[in-house]
Amino acid sequence: MRGTFSKILGKYALLATLIISYLFLYLPILHIGLGSFARNHTFPYPPRWTLDTFGRLFANSLYQTAFFNSLVLGLGAAALATLLAAAATLGLMRHAGRRAGLYLTLFVAPLFVAEVLIGIASLIFNGLVLELQGNLVSAILANAVHCFSYALLIMATQLYRYDWRLDDAAMVFGASPARTFFEVTLPLIWPGLLGAFVVTFIMAFNNLEISFYLLGATPTLPSVAWGALRYGVKPELYALATAVNLVVILGLGLMFVLMLTGTATFGHRPERERAV
Amino acid sequence: MKGRWAGRALLGVPTAFLLGLFVLPLLSMVVLSFWRTENYHIVQDWNLGNYITLATGGAYVTFLIRSLVMASAVSLVCILIAWPVSYSIILYGGRYRLLLTLAFAVPFLTGEVLRVIALQGLLGPLGLINAMLMALGNAPLRFIMYTNVASAIGLIYLYLPIVVTVIYLSLLNFDARLIDAAKIFGASPLRAFVEVTWPLNLFGTLIGFALCFIPCLSATLAPRFLGGPNGTLYGMAMAQQFGESGTWALGAAMGVVLFLTSLIAVLLVGMRVNLRRTGFTGFGRG
């Protein structure tokens, strides 16, 4: 009797922690989301609905330029990081041999260096050695360093169970390495590539701590938001955060639907799941 | 022969990329930390002045100690929350496991500035908690407005998602049949947890700890916008050297201190892990 009682207690304690954590994470987001659609934005209970804030946000030319720059930054860094990480993952699994540990240490090292340090170190390197002013390309490159490690981890979880005998089989039947890659490997690993691209794009798009030191006078959404935040929170910032949150939720929702319907697996292998 | 060239290119290009854009910048930061800045100009004059300033200027030592305490406390709290959360997702998540973990990733991916804005909406003088208290006729809570507690709550908010994700992945790859085996042989649930589940997931937990501790140690945004006058952390002071005060060399020295401190923390944590005991079997299909 006592056993079942403590079991039920444990279950409810676990579930309560889970629910409280979600509340903690999402209450601020919901609060400012509601605030950005309301005239009484600081305490929108009950809200008086309006779309003025979003209208002002989208009409502001600074935010438009910043959005475009962030888009370029995100796409550039994500494309570079995904390509390099794909090469690194394939290389690690197929060609590294005994040095795999060494390469892996180098490849995941950026995860263990704070973003702000990557930003500052790149600023010093650009300023002292290359004598470059702040520009978008340096920011793309520095973001790609940080995104590379995340992309590598995402792809490694996907490729961990990849069956290399398929490649060998294609080669045995006379396919060139290039043809094997495009007709066998790529079709099987694209969900990992796409997953890594989406995640690193979102990360670079929203990054401030690296980009801030390298952008010079180029505005991006996070840097404009940072500039505005120094003068206090404005309803436009609520609207901006809400818009970005909605896009991220849509993006991850799309990934989830793809996984649910089995179109793509993104490193998630249902057959690996076990009942606890 | 061809295969070997392909292998070299696949590993060589990313290695060159990281050496050029990650290792070299860090090295140039180390070099700069031994120079000095005078009136916004960098003087190539080898000296230890920056480090002497950092070691003897009382404020910098205070900032470092405060940062260390803050980062350790935040990482511990994050792990204490993340364990039951990821465990219950694994246990009760069923087919919605993935959705539940992705839901944790959403706030992580929306960028620090936007999350700090959301946090100000929660904790600030006009934020949700205080506005609610005042609407109910109570006095606002002072300890969550521009204090170290607010910074800590902010950092937990910022880095809880990554700790949950890491521990979740660790638990997902953990063979739960081992628990059943332990129980069949008469272990109580508590003992099975302490002797099987915990040690086998220790590696994941420590990675989660490191991935929370390192960014917290160098946090710049949360203390700036959520912390108060007594809330300056080391990373924030470092960022100021590259902005308002223009003393790059001192900032570089602070960067080196932060880098070394994180490295020591990772090594200390790493030494406690016996990879084989945690069930790590190597990378790839050896």
Structural notes for this entry:
The complex is a heterodimer of chains A (about 280) and B (about 290). Chain A is built from ten helices and no strands. Chain A has helices at about 1-35, 50-60, 60-95, 100-110, 115-130, 135-160, 165-170, 175-205, 220-230, 235-260. The model of chain A is unreliable at about 265-275 (pLDDT under 50). With about 290 residues, chain B is mainly α. Chain B has helices at about 1-35, 50-55, 60-90, 95-110, 110-125, 130-135, 150-170, 175-185, 190-200, 200-215, 220-225, 235-240, 250-270; strands at about 35-40, 40-45. Chain B has a two-stranded antiparallel ribbon. In chain B, strand 1 (about 35-40) and strand 2 form a beta hairpin. The longest helix of chain B has about 35 residues, at about 60-90. Chain B is globular, with a radius of gyration of 23 Å.
Regarding quaternary structure, what we see is heterodimer
Order of helices and strands of chain A: HHHHHHHHHH
CATH superfamily of the largest domain in chain B: MetI-like
Per DSSP, what share of the residues of chain A sits in E-state strands of 2 or more residues?
under 5%
Radius of gyration of chain B: 23 Å
Distance between the termini of chain A: 22 Å
List keywords for this structure.
heterodimer, A: 276 residues, mainly alpha, 10 helices, disordered C terminus, B: 286 residues, MetI-like fold, two-stranded antiparallel ribbon, globular
Short structural summary:
The complex is a heterodimer of chains A (276) and B (286). By secondary structure, chain A is mostly helical.
Task: Show the helix and strand layout.
The complex is a heterodimer of chains A (276) and B (286).
Chain A: H1 2-36, H2 52-59, H3 61-94, H4 100-108, H5 115-129, H6 136-159, H7 165-172, H8 177-205, H9 221-229, H10 235-260
Chain B: H1 2-33, E1 36-38, E2 41-43, H2 49-56, H3 58-92, H4 97-109, H5 112-123, H6 128-135, H7 148-172, H8 177-184, H9 189-200, H10 202-217, H11 221-225, H12 234-242, H13 248-271
Antiparallel strand pairs in B: 1-2
Helix pairs in contact in B: 1-13, 2-3, 2-13, 3-7, 3-10, 4-7, 5-7, 7-10, 8-9, 10-13, 12-13
